[in-house]
Design the sequence.
């Protein structure tokens, strides 16, 4: 990594803003009218020209897609999202409709979908709430209320219980400290000891202490806490979580710790597991690629290759087919 590149990332990280590594970048000579015309023609074509729809929408950012939708509506006198819904089906439709939402709207919809209806889809709830930054969660709460006229906190509380609910609510309350340029070694030591004293050291687990430390400290501080933790505990943080708590609470703490340590590696592993599992878990693959393509999918791709020895693009090619494969590859971009 070039020094200048590293410094660039450093300055990005200090303001509480995470560095961005998108695969979907703004198209250069962008003309929303031309794109809208291409999409209109593609939809009207007998049998629908999916390839054109994929080419246009995966190579434009969300804000550009919004402009295309405005142009489309002026031209065709109908709503582009409704038209796309009518023209497409299956997995391709799911991805394309996901792309017509902002990352925050998409996350809010996924959370809402995991809560409403019979039974809760805890896996989705955990993945989103435990992997999003504080800034992202602040936005998600706002958008959730605009979209569904409901408070995210109330919905989460109404749908979960016990310590699992307490942890998710602590995250949704977004009390996490911003990263600081100053490293507080005393605080790091205190937190590491407190995590050990509340868990491995005693019989039972003082979950409340774990929740407050993991929901209120900055990610950069927690990375150092988990390092220091190893000097007190015979087990690292992830092993301690597995020993101390069970079920959804365990899953949530594990996702949190993995994301503090290396968020993009966490997503790379999720993608690999989802694509290689029986009855490939398309929902997970779609969610990660759609929600991260303008955030950090480029870095997820590099972690993927480093960890699994083949590119994410190769795995997608082996485990998916047809238009679904094309749209995913379009969003991942060319292999590095």
Sequence:
């Amino acid at each position: 990594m070039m020094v200048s590149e590293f410094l660039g990332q450093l300055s990005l990280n200090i303001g509480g803003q995470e560095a961005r590594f998108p695969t979907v970048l703004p198209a250069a000579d962008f003309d929303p009218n031309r794109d809208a015309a291409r999409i209109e023609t593609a939809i009207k074509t007998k049998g629908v020209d999916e390839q054109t729809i994929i080419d246009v929408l995966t190579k434009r950012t969300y804000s550009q897609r919004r402009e295309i939708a405005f142009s489309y509506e002026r031209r065709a006198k109908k709503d582009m999202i409704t038209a796309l819904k009518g023209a497409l089906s299956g997995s391709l439709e799911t991805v394309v409709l996901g792309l017509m939402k902002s990352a925050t709207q998409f996350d809010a919809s996924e959370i809402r979908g995991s809560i409403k209806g019979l039974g809760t889809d805890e896996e989705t709830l955990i993945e989103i709430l435990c992997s999003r930054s504080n800034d992202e969660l602040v936005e998600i709460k706002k958008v959730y209320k605009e979209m569904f006229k409901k408070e995210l906190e109330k919905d989460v509380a109404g749908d979960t219980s016990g310590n699992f609910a307490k942890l998710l609510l602590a995250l949704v309350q977004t009390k996490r400290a911003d990263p600081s340029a100053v490293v507080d070694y005393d605080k790091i030591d205190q937190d590491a000891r407190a995590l050990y004293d509340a868990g491995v050291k005693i019989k039972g687990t003082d979950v409340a202490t774990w929740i407050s430390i993991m929901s209120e400290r900055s990610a950069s501080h927690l990375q150092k806490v988990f390092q220091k933790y190893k000097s007190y505990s015979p087990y690292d943080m992830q092993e301690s979580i597995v020993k101390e708590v069970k079920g959804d609470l365990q899953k949530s703490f594990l996702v949190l710790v993995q994301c503090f340590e290396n968020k993009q590696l966490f997503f790379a592993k999720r993608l690999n597991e989802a694509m290689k599992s029986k009855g490939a878990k398309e929902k997970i693959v779609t969610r990660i690629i759609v929600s991260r393509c303008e955030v950090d999918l480029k870095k997820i791709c590099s972690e993927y290759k480093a960890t699994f020895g083949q590119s994410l693009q190769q795995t997608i090619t082996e485990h998916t087919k047809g238009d679904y494969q094309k749209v995913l590859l379009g969003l991942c971009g060319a292999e590095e």
Remarks:
- The two ends are 15 Å apart (CA to CA).
- Confidence is low (pLDDT under 50) at residues 4-16.
- Residues 247-276 form the longest helix (30 residues).
